[in-house]
Write a structure and sequence with these properties.
It is built from 19 helices and ten strands. By secondary structure, the protein is mainly alpha-helical. A three-stranded mixed sheet has the order 1-2-8. A three-stranded antiparallel sheet has the order 4-10-9. α11 packs antiparallel against α12, α15 crosses α17 and α17 crosses α19. It is globular and about 60 Å long. Bound molecules: protoporphyrin IX containing FE (HEM).
Length: 401
């Protein structure tokens, strides 16, 4: 496609299909300034530039490195400026980042995550058993409850508190950036939720990650703000992202009957199919904010200290110079890996967990319902208006008996 001006970068049409705009940007303005409410940001859309930005030692993840305009615009607020929620690894650089990451990385190794496969299967089977009648919404009925159950199990969030957590988290993850007041209220709620949870773990320790972090905090290995911030990051990052992978991924598959039939004929293709889902229409639109600490040139553009930088993972993952025929859903691609989980020091710590959950959820629903089909025109589906995430509000299907 080639048009003279860039298709809109905001609004329902963009949310429904952002890829024509990304194609235009990659061709005509691969590293460009885009207007946001209250400030401008650099948007990086080509794969090679995206990798450079994600791994650049002079691009800081610390919100304190952001320009005064970015900070005044409240774009990261209140999440990036509340010590009890913001002092986690994704906002840290260098030694601080490594220390915070090391505190939890042992919990998320691929081997430990494989150990959770049986639990993911048990939860999924229970959710599928509950489906009643011929119609279902695979976002509400499967994609939401599975990841929240698993991450809450891991962290030790009591069953009775999970609905409250889910309500607060979904505001933060799927709200538009402009809904600042709504986000702020939900953030207040989450701050209180986490502080109550830490108090609970102090008085009633369990066999869970949060109890372990509380113990480390008593030993002085982690500041109390880092403790609540880490719990916050893991709960949020470990939840909505996987919801979107399962929802977007199932949609992609249901829209590609040949690939669906190939998978049904040979379920050993599932890991390749999930990997292609992450490239083709992954859950994370843009990587989190980065800020140059000195002048930096990427894609021929000079970025100044403090300039906010967004890396479009969705755009980079459709770059034709890396992925031949990039708009085709084509599991089993060889060559460069996609950027769905990021790249470099902040590469997703939960990648193995997300893949296990998606494989279990998608494999199980397809095995149980051989005639599964979309129950709506894909053009009618509503997407989250979030600037960070790409996910579906619902995925109506016919189960087909
Ligand atoms: C399909 C699901 C997921 C996707 C697509 C995804 C994607 C990403 C991406 C793109 C980043 C890098 C962000 C950046 O560099 O700005 C990231 C980081 C991170 N993810 Fe995930 N994620 C997923 C699931 C999870 C899960 C299940 C967890 C937790 C258990 C998790 C925890 C994290 C954490 C803690 C980081 C920060 C790592 C660091 O700063 O060193 N993610 N994720």
């Amino acid at each position: 496609m080639s048009t003279d001006s860039c298709p809109p970068l905001f609004g329902p049409a963009f949310d429904a299909d952002p890829y024509p705009a990304f194609e235009w940007l990659r061709r005509n303005a691969p590293v460009t300034r885009v207007p946001l409410p209250g400030c401008e940001a650099w948007l990086v859309t080509r794969y090679e530039d995206a990798v450079e930005a994600l791994t650049h030692p002079s691009l800081s993840k610390d919100p304190a490195s952001g320009s005064p305009e970015w900070r005044a615009a409240s774009l990261g607020l209140p999440l990036d400026h509340r010590p009890s929620l913001a002092r986690h690894m994704i906002n840290a650089d260098g030694e601080d980042h490594s220390r915070l990451r090391r505190l939890v990385s042992a919990t998320f190794t691929p081997r430990r995550m494989e150990g959770l496969r049986a639990r993911a299967q048990e939860v999924t089977d229970g959710l599928l058993d509950r489906l009643d009648g011929d119609e279902a919404d695979l976002v509400a009925d499967l994609a939401y409850p599975l990841p929240i159950t698993i991450i809450c199990d891991l962290l030790g969030v009591p069953e009775e508190d999970r609905d409250a957590f889910h309500r607060l988290a979904s505001v933060i993850d799927s709200a538009a950036a402009s809904e600042v007041e709504q986000i702020s209220l939900a953030t207040d709620g989450l701050e209180k939720f986490l502080s109550d949870l830490v108090t609970l773990k102090r008085t009633r320790p369990g066999d869970d990650l949060l109890t372990e972090l509380v113990r480390r905090s008593h030993r002085g290995e982690i500041h109390p703000d880092e403790l609540t911030s880490t719990a916050f990051l893991l709960l949020i990052a470990g939840h909505e992202t996987t919801v979107a992978l399962i929802g977007n991924g199932l949609l992609a598959l249901l829209r590609h009957p040949e690939q669906l039939a190939a998978l049904r004929a040979d379920f050993s293709l599932l890991p390749d199919v999930v990997d292609e889902m992450l490239r083709y229409d992954g859950p994370v639109r843009n990587a989190t904010w980065r800020f140059p600490t000195e002048p930096v040139v990427i894609g021929g553009q000079r970025m100044l200290p403090g300039d906010p930088v967004l890396v479009s993972l969705l755009a980079a993952n459709r770059d034709p110079s890396v992925f031949p025929d990039p708009d085709a859903f084509s599991p089993g691609r060889i060559g460069e890996p996609h950027l769905g989980f990021g790249r470099g020091p902040h590469y997703c710590i939960g990648a193995a967990l997300a893949k296990v959950e998606a494989e279990v959820a998608i494999g199980s629903v397809l095995r149980r319902f051989p005639r599964l089909a979309l129950a709506t025109d894909p053009g009618e589906l509503a997407w989250w208006p979030s600037a960070i995430m790409r996910g579906l509000f619902s995925l109506p299907v016919r189960l087909g008996g």
